[in-house]
Amino acid sequence: MNSNLFTGFIPNTLGNLRDLRQLFIGGNNLTGEVSTLELRFFDSLLFFLLIALNQLNGILPASVTNLSTSLRAFQAFGSKIKGEIPMGISNLSDLSTLSLGRNELTGFISSMLGRLKNLEQLYLEDNDLKGSIPNNLCQLERLGELYLSDNKLDEPIPSCLGELCSMIRLSLGSNNFTLTVP
């Protein structure tokens, strides 16, 4: 159901589909339910969740941690998601792609993301994240793409990022860094 002209809200009851394994509804003009700010429609045990490029206008609920530990890709970029990244997102141990860029996320980048040992791609660009880049992101040996540009991040930039052999793309532009890149 990607890239159609669907409009309207995504009902929270969609989360009741306990056998749903893949949800691809990106590139539409869908919104979250107006009765609540929490986006609770993806409480199912999914493997792939693509809800990018919609107008969700809500926050990621703490229940995002109830998604299957088999979830491999969580793509919700450009969907007007607000608030902080839930701490428990680090429980999604099989996650290889976390794409939450181009939203309205606030707060800090949690050091708990360093627990996502299978993470290969982390996209948090173009949000309102602040603070420093957690050192333990350097423990993500498979991390090949790290996009943190267009936030309000500041020093220090962990020098260990330069030691990640798997790193292919690193984007840190348009932040509040004043020191040189290590």
Structure, explained:
The strands form three sheets. This protein has a seven-stranded parallel β-sheet with strand order 2-4-5-7-9-11-13, with no helix packed on it. It has a four-stranded parallel β-sheet with strand order 6-8-10-12, with no helix packed on it. It contains no helices and 13 strands. Helix content is 0%, strand content 23%. The N and C termini lie far apart (44 Å). The chain has 182 residues and is mainly β.
Query: What's the mean pLDDT score?
Result: 85
Main sheet: strand order: 2-4-5-7-9-11-13
How widely separated are the two ends?
44 Å
> Low-confidence spans: pLDDT under 50, at least 5 residues?
none
Look at the helices and sheets and give the structural class.
mainly beta
Strand content: 15-25%
Looking at how many chains there are and whether they match, the oligomeric state comes to: single chain
